[in-house]
Automatic annotation (TrEMBL):
Protein's recorded name: Trichome birefringence-like N-terminal domain-containing protein
Stretches assigned to the Trichome birefringence-like C-terminal domain: 112-396
Residues in Trichome birefringence-like N-terminal domain copies: 59-111
Subcellular location: Golgi apparatus membrane
């Protein structure tokens, strides 16, 4: 008591009162304003909020960035990998410039590690991955086979003949299996045939059972598709003709290939959810269709560039490309929000828009071949920019694990 009176009225009073004033200045600082009337639990919660470590930084967006020089690329060549299809074998067919190989994808603010075959095989041991889509799904798979070829080669255990586009490849030492399903529309389709080759009937509400029936065997299924939806097609729903694209109809329809593309992805994703698929679904967004310059693919168009675009110099998407891309994003979001399946987005479109230099162009065939050939500005040279898809794939599988 005597001590308290001395503090209040003695020589130290001024010092004491000054300290009180200084402390009062902090009463509006977040987390330091504590009321003695707060209950114990609330007080403990407030204390932990400012004593705890800061929240972790947001995850890196591996899909936004630039292509940067990489003197160590490529990781393989056409001489070290036997899985390159002839139409993407740009080195074999004499492409003279090879600088297009010397780039790697670098996300903004972080790094995407180079594909490591040992890490990949460790991540997928005792698992199965299915690539479902068109020839770009095959292009993607062949890139993966080449990147893994430094470590191991698969055994072809396909149950069909060698001409069948569907494949099953097994890595015995790792019990890892790759399925490839040719399903360019993802849904059931049939060619009209007869005198109308290349015209299709698309049953937009019926998934392609060839791959869906095998889905219980998959741990990861990678869905993709775009280019084939620009072909002449009739649209069917509930068994009835409801529209078409580039074909004559005896009724009025406003449905376009934007609609057929959207419905195909919706049907595929909902079918996996309805079948209670318990693996991971990866939706890969479209690969550019707009790298032709000087004309369309059948009118002399070509892709002769020898280096990437910078992000701020890349022309934005438009037209059918933008419509397809938008529908993929929207159907992905719907599937993710429905929570019926574990679905992830491989949003590779922005990165690939910057690589008009990475296509085979004329270097997927010999110039004197006696057949109708177009410059290929759709598929990707192997090795080439498409190898970044497997950098992304490894990152996504490692992150999820």
């Amino acid at each position: 008591m005597v001590l308290c009176l001395k503090l209040l009225f003695g020589p130290t009073a001024a010092i004491f009162l000054s300290a009180v004033v200084i402390l009062s200045c902090f009463t509006n600082v977040p987390y330091l304003q504590l009321s003695y009337t707060d209950d114990v639990d609330d007080l403990a919660g407030r204390r932990s909020s400012y004593l705890a470590a800061p929240p972790p930084p947001p995850k890196c967006d591996i899909f936004r960035g630039e292509w940067v020089p990489d003197p160590d690329a490529p990781q393989y060549t056409n001489e070290t990998c036997a899985f390159i299809q002839e139409h993407q074998n740009c080195m074999f067919y004499g492409r003279p410039d090879l600088d297009f190989l010397k780039w790697r994808w670098k996300p903004h603010g972080c790094d995407l590690p180079r594909f490591d075959p040992y890490r990949f095989l460790a991540a997928v041991g005792n698992k199965t991955i299915a690539f479902v889509g068109d020839s770009l799904a095959r292009n993607h798979m062949q890139s993966l086979l080449c990147l893994l070829s430094k470590v191991a080669s698969p055994k072809d255990v396909s149950v069909t003949d060698k001409a069948d586009p569907n494949k099953i490849l097994h890595y015995e030492g790792y019990n890892f299996t790759i399925y490839l399903f040719w399903s360019p529309f993802l849904v059931r389709s049939e060619e009209v045939g007869g005198d109308r080759p290349g015209v299709f009937r698309l049953f937009l509400d019926e998934p392609d059972e060839r791959w869906l029936s095998a889905s219980p065997h998959f741990d990861v299924v990678l869905l993709s598709g775009a280019n084939w939806f620009t072909r002449e097609s009739y649209f069917y729903e509930r068994g009835e003709l409801v529209g078409g694209m580039y074909v004559a109809l005896n009724f009025t329809s406003t449905l376009t290939n934007h609609y057929s593309h959207r419905m195909a992805f919706r049907t595929a994703l909902r079918a996996l959810a309805a079948s209670r698929f318990r693996g991971k679904v990866i939706l890969r967004t479209l690969s550019p269709m707009s790298h032709f310059e000087g004309g369309a693919y059948d009118a002399g168009g070509d892709c002769r560039r020898t280096r990437p675009f910078w992000a701020n110099k890349t022309a934005p998407m438009g037209g059918v490309e933008l419509e397809f891309y938008t529908s993929q994003l929207e159907e992905f979001r719907e599937a993710a929000e429905a929570r019926g399946i574990d679905v992830a987005l491989m949003d590779a479109t922005a990165a690939m828009l910057m690589r008009p230099d990475g296509h085979p162009s004329r270097y997927g065939h010999w110039p004197d071949e006696k057949r109708t050939l177009y410059n290929d500005c759709i598929h990707w040279c192997l090795p080439g920019p498409i190898d970044a898809w497997n950098d992304m794939l490894l990152h996504m599988l490692s992150d999820s694990s």
